[in-house]
Design brief:
By secondary structure, this protein is of the alpha+beta class. The chain has 10 helices and 24 strands. The relative contact order is 0.14.
Length: 450
């Protein structure tokens, strides 16, 4: 009996040992997590609703569908949008080369050839554009890309034009995408906004070099407006736990303007208690070479997924380069129901700014992370409709402001976010991006709420 008891006891000890070993292996950081320089921390999750791949974060904000001289606009919220971007991402592209399209080529694209014009509201570095493709493509002859024009040649063969409006250059490549023409037909038949091209010099024939149209509806355009409830701010203790490898070693200091600085001697987290915003810094050794955007965006996306997740539908708006620090700064803008959100800092209400998240990365990981600790709750509390002005009224308003069409980089729909205590009103606007970097908004006329 005693021997049987000993055998059972020994078996229990062995099983317990295996269980403890398994728990240690499961809870320990993986080799990749140690190697990539972000340092393993216990993750916390705010939301996994907005998880994306890098090519989705860097996708353009507007697609113009061209067929038989008609033009329709699609935006990221359209159900056809992710299907197209996935087709492009996995298309095996050929080597790209410089071309010089003729005036007839441009005229055919606008009036005859079925195709898509993928448009960025801000010029995007060519290194970022390369993330849209799973296969390698060298676009280094272009500093930045404003648009991509994609059209069918024969069968499943598709041509890509990468257009830099600022440099007046075009690069071309080809790929095979099955049923691409069918996708265009579906887009034409979808309930998307009909648009008309507007040229700064009056017509495509009067344009010098590469024609740079922007698009407006002939008549007023109906756009929903929303009222969203603000979340409670993310707890700073949760961010400390996520961002520092050992939060117990973190010391805090109260500084001016009711801000705290938390540090473990190498990393710092600045927390503003008035507007509940934070700036995290993890300085990396200064590099002599600027990083590769595709790799940096991948590190940023992994960092966000491990540190609470994206708290909204954020898309890359632009990349700024700091030549002194050999560092790239990535600015991600919130999109709500297809359109980008711009915080109205002049409105009365809480002093918060949650329309952008800013990050920087090096080969050691994320070095800078700035954001508001507030976010919009997922479902709007109230919806209604507004009407954005049509083409003639927009052009009259632009002229009245003394803005010439030659200095307009883009015109697109967006939302002006007006804070109201625990709520945020999203009011439809036309966003005018000027070549000097300034923005101006044309507001909508509101109608009866639904």
């Amino acid at each position: 009996m005693r021997e049987a008891f000993k055998s059972v006891f020994l078996l229990v000890l062995i099983v317990s040992s295996f269980v403890q070993t398994g728990m240690l292996l499961y809870s320990s950081p993986s080799y990749d997590e140690i190697r990539n320089g972000d340092n393993y921390v216990t993750p916390f999750k705010i939301s996994d609703k907005y998880e994306k791949q890098v090519y989705e974060l860097a996708s353009p904000q507007q697609i113009m569908v061209h067929q038989d001289g008609k033009h329709q606009a699609l935006y990221p919220g359209n159900s056809l949008y992710p299907t197209l971007m996935k087709k492009i991402h996995y298309a095996p592209v050929e080597k790209a080369s410089m071309i010089q399209p003729s005036e007839k080529d441009w005229d055919d694209l606008l009036k005859k050839t079925p195709g898509l014009e993928l448009r960025y509201y801000q010029p995007m570095p060519s290194g970022v554009i390369q993330t849209l493709f799973s296969s390698e493509i060298d676009l280094s002859d272009l500093k930045e890309v404003t648009r991509m024009w994609v059209f069918v040649e024969k069968g499943n063969r598709v041509t890509f034009w990468f257009i830099s409006d600022q440099e007046s250059k075009v690069m071309e490549t080809s790929a095979r995408i099955n049923q691409f023409d069918r996708w265009i037909s579906e887009a034409v038949n979808s309930n998307s906004a009909a648009m008309e091209p507007v040229f700064a010099n009056g017509s495509i024939k009067e344009e010098q070099g590469i024609p740079k149209p922007f698009y407006l509806p002939k008549k007023t355009m109906s756009v929903n407006h929303y009222v969203y409830q603000l979340s409670d701010p993310i707890k700073i203790d949760d961010m400390k736990t996520a961002l520092f490898p050992n939060p117990r070693l973190v010391q805090s200091t109260l500084v001016l303007n009711k801000s705290y600085i938390y540090t473990d001697t190498s990393r710092t987290l600045q927390y503003n208690t008035q507007n509940h915003s934070m700036i995290y810094s993890n300085p990396a050794p200064k590099s002599t070479d600027t990083g590769i955007p595709a790799e940096e965006l991948d590190r940023i996306n992994l960092f966000m997924l491990r540190h609470g997740g994206w708290t909204g539908d954020y898309h890359l708006e632009r990349m700024d380069e700091d030549p002194n620090a050999q560092l790239h700064h990535y600015i991600f803008r919130l999109l709500v129901r297809q359109f980008p959100v711009y915080w109205n800092s002049n409105a009365k209400g809480p002093d918060i700014d949650l329309d952008t998240i800013r990050l920087s990365a090096t080969d050691q990981g994320v070095s800078n992370y700035e954001r508001s600790l507030y976010y919009l709750l997922s479902a709007p509390e109230k919806t209604g409709t507004s009407r954005l002005p049509g083409k003639d009224d927009v052009l009259k308003a632009v002229k009245a402001q003394g803005i010439s069409l030659q200095e307009i980089r883009s015109i697109h729909p967006g939302y002006s976010a007006v804070p109201r205590q625990k709520h945020v009103e999203l009011q439809p606007v036309w966003v005018i991006n000027r070549s000097n970097g300034k923005q101006w908004f044309i507001r909508s006329s509101e109608s009866q709420g639904e």
